[in-house]
Specification:
CATH topology of the largest domain in chain A: Tetracycline Repressor, domain 2
Number of domains of chain A: 2
Oligomer: homodimer
Helix content of chain A: over 70%
Largest interface: A-B, 44 and 43 residues
Low-confidence stretches of chain A: none
Mean pLDDT of chain A: 87
Radius of gyration of chain A: 19 Å
Shape of chain A: elongated
CATH superfamily of the largest domain in chain A: Tetracycline Repressor, domain 2
């Protein structure tokens, strides 16, 4: 009886293999060959799923983005608006090993995309969709009249986005010293500066 | 008559060759071979200066750090404290092509260092020395009584540092849309939120 292979499941297994390689060796270790080996699959079978290294990397980055999106969508929305925002940001910044790995992949992918024209649209798409998350935060806050008066919501969305990505980078490049509590404390301080008491 | 070669000058020429390759192909394009070719030098002569790819990259990153440091040190110190800070931040964030290239090299180097244990000490050193720059800013502001009351200067130094590195990353990965004026505007808004009017 032939083995029934779930196509989507197999793609995800391959993406998991890519992540393990990235965490161990960096993006430069990712090749169609190394991923086939890591996933215990033949080169021919792998090429059936991804015909280039760029396609493989793009898929892995998309999976990271989807995971984060799913976590954000499953957050309860009925609590205190400020706590909702902190919970949302907590899904993006490296507060634990899993989110640290996602952050490393995002940074590595973004860097790789700088010199890979094929990957730039996805890199920009991810940047832009996170920008929209921050715009939504400030629109919701403004509608609920929780923002201090006189704030430029578009500018504040960009400022908060830059702060969060900066914390993400610091969490990755100085992970021994930039601790999770520190990141959470800086986000809390930033929100204090923006919201009415 | 033998050609007199200035050792330091030659090292700088090599670093310039590394920068050109990084901007064109990314860090993955940098090898002892490609740098020798770019600099029009034999492989043997190059190995006289740098015996590994890591040594070459570390030197290039150090040169970027030194350039930024020199620009900061040559800034006038006698003006308005707020303008001094804006001028200082302007030496770090990608406001023009040169500083965009430096930012690209910093991001690429920091990413590369994640999987190259040899490069991690330098990566951390650069992170820590920039952290000190931000600590100094807030100590000076506190001494001049320019800070709004009740601020935690250590936390504010970390927050400003994360914001600036986030702007730097955005300037690099979304350079077509995150414009220099936007970066300057966000820095100005951040300072407004911290300083007494």
């Amino acid at each position: 009886m032939p083995k029934i292979v779930n196509h989507e499941e197999r793609r995800e297994q391959l993406a998991e293999a890519v992540w393990r390689i990235i965490r161990r060796e960096g993006l430069e270790g990712v090749s169609v060959r190394s991923v086939a080996e890591e996933a215990g699959m033949s080169l021919g079978s792998l090429r059936h799923y991804f015909d280039s290294q760029s396609a493989l990397l793009a898929f892995s980055m998309q999976l990271v983005a989807e995971r984060i999106k799913k976590r954000i969508q499953s957050l309860p929305q009925d609590g205190d608006p400020r706590e909702n925002i902190e919970a949302l940001i907590g899904q993006i910044v490296p507060l634990d090993e899993d989110r640290l790995a996602e952050s490393q992949i995002w940074i590595a992918f973004s860097t790789f995309a700088l010199t890979e024209p094929e990957l730039r649209p996805l890199s920009r798409e991810i940047h832009d969709s996170l920008r929209d998350v921050f715009r939504n935060i400030f629109e919701t806050l403004a509608q609920s009249q929780l923002l201090k008066p006189g704030l430029d919501t578009e500018l504040e969305a960009k400022r908060f986005h830059a702060l969060v990505d900066g914390l993400l980078v610091h969490g990755v490049i100085a992970s021994e010293v930039v601790l999770a509590e520190e990141i959470a404390g800086i986000v809390a301080r930033h929100l204090d500066s923006l919201l009415v008491p």
